[in-house]
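Table 4 source record.
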Amino acid sequence: MKKILLALAMTLALATTARAENIGMRFGVLPVIDTLPLQVADREGLFAKHGLDVTLVRFMSALERDTAMQTGQIDAYFGDLIATYLLLDRGVPMHIALTSWRTTPGYPMFGIALSPAGRDRTLADMRGRSLALSRSTIMEFLCDKLENHLGVGHGYFSQLEVKKLPIRLQMLLTDQVDAALLPEPLLSLARLKGGNVLATAEDLNLPVTVLCLHKRYFENNGAAYGKFLAAYADALRLLAESPEKYRALMAETCRIPKPLVPQFPIYPYPAPALPASAELAEVQDWMVAKGLLKKPVPDSVALPPAHD
């Protein structure tokens, strides 16, 4: 018995030591679909497998997440490119690690939903009608890009500021606005509740959300960054091989409304890669034009340093 207890104690000691030696990382996330690979990596122990001790810190708002990143309460975060550049412009010491989602045909992560009363309206019918969104955010950026993509030009919709998503959805479903720019799964929920979808951002071919790490994880020739990429790639592989295995995890961590859970698609997340410099310039040019940035943030600040 003593030998068994001794062996158990040694095993626990070794496990504790190994965990202590792992590189710590507090990673801020929102309960949205883009973060499912991080949830899979956490659930399956993939971070620990690659020598990282990652704690996913859940925030219910982007403002709380951004404040935590600015004040050093977290070491890494998930967010859209507009929020990322606002943090970089404020001097937050981080680099973009990879693109977590880019617009993908067949998977409408964002779109314009129509109210139940106007569910049969066409694009021509929507000229000058109200579109609820949040200004100075990725939503306004996507709205401008959608107007160009649809060939209607800027200002086609009458934009109405409604920052909070639950309120925006409620106003749409009660016909207080004609349309609303929504992310999934709220886009699908609006359709389920009697609305419709006018257009989606799936064909824009743009990076939308990214994962960012504190600059210290890129030191020592990017060793910690490499470990993170390896763990994330493993999570993507597991998701691609057995997507249905993670449906319950998606429902739990990504706030999928219960009626949508059985049929909601498991998204095909992009392989770990950085946004192209031209794509980042497009986002920043828009931000400068909107007065969100005085001047673009250099790629040398936003992107990881090159390593041999």
